[in-house]
Amino acid sequence: MTDNHNYRNVPTERQFLLSIIETCFWIMLFATTVALAATWLTTRHLEASIHYQALLTSIVLLVLIVPACIGIIGRQSILNHRRMLEVTRLAHTDEMTGLANRRSFMQEATERLKSTNVELDGIAVFIVDLDHFKSVNDVYGHSAGDEVLIHAAKQMEKAVPHGSLICRLGGEEFAIMLGYRSVLDVHERAEEIRRRIASKPCTVGEHSISITASVGAGIAHSRDTVSSVMTRADNALYEAKGEGRNRFAIAA
């Protein structure tokens, strides 16, 4: 499974629920303390039976009212949190393929590149472009083209190691960032991406649609930014396209 979405600053629903429970506990403790203290102070000069009856009434009201109020507030807070998670997901995700979008990829790839010593732990960026994709839309229609994009995205996810970053840049173009041990690993991974897409036709209704992809790879160096590595990968992609498509090229 690839690492497509990294919402580091957004708590999970479980974390949020635990924080709500903790907050509710302190609210109940505070409300109970204040109510009992106020009742004690305002009724302590009265007869003992009235005094203790007032305290008991305060406790009963707290038990009935405070949990109900907290429940309503907590439920609404959880619903709002779910909406926030969905908005965050949509902001980071390509709606069609479910992959990360360009913005999310650039943010996470930049963080990963900054935190990695590329002289010790290699990082490569691949640009993958589906060959002659326009003809798929022209022959089979745009809905079939969408299915082909989704299918190709799944093949790319299967072709890369766990923890790789993968996104749809736009149109029929995708980007992948992954680690490698040797340049041979980069060659093998690029070939695996190309091979899987070429060998796995997409079934749309009664049609079996075959498609190929060209792959350009850029190897990151110590002074690189994500943009500079992607530029080299893009140049390598054009090289692969110029040599006939359905192949890969690597720019060191």
Level of helix content?
A: 55-70%
The poorly predicted ranges are none
Q: Summarize the biggest pleated sheet.
A: 5 strands, mixed
The CATH topology label of the largest domain is Alpha-Beta Plaits
Looking at CATH, the homologous superfamily of the largest domain is Reverse transcriptase/Diguanylate cyclase domain
Question: What's the domain count?
Answer: 2
Question: What general outline do the C-alpha atoms trace?
Answer: elongated
Oligomer: single chain
Strand-pairing-aware structural class: alpha+beta
Radius of gyration: 29 Å
For the residues shown, what is the average pLDDT?
Answer: 86
**Annotation, overall tally of beta strands:** 7
Structural key phrases:
elongated; Alpha-Beta Plaits; alpha+beta; five-stranded mixed β-sheet; 7 helices; 252 residues; two-stranded antiparallel ribbon; 59% helix; single chain; 2 domains
Structure summarized in a few sentences:
Helix content is 59%, strand content 16%.
Map the helices and strands.
Elements: H1 13-43, H2 48-92, H3 102-114, E1 122-130, H4 133-140, H5 142-159, E2 165-170, E3 173-180, H6 183-199, E4 202-204, E5 207-209, E6 213-219, H7 226-242, E7 248-251
Parallel strand pairs: 6-7
Antiparallel strand pairs: 1-3, 1-6, 2-3, 4-5
Helix pairs in contact: 1-2, 4-5, 5-6
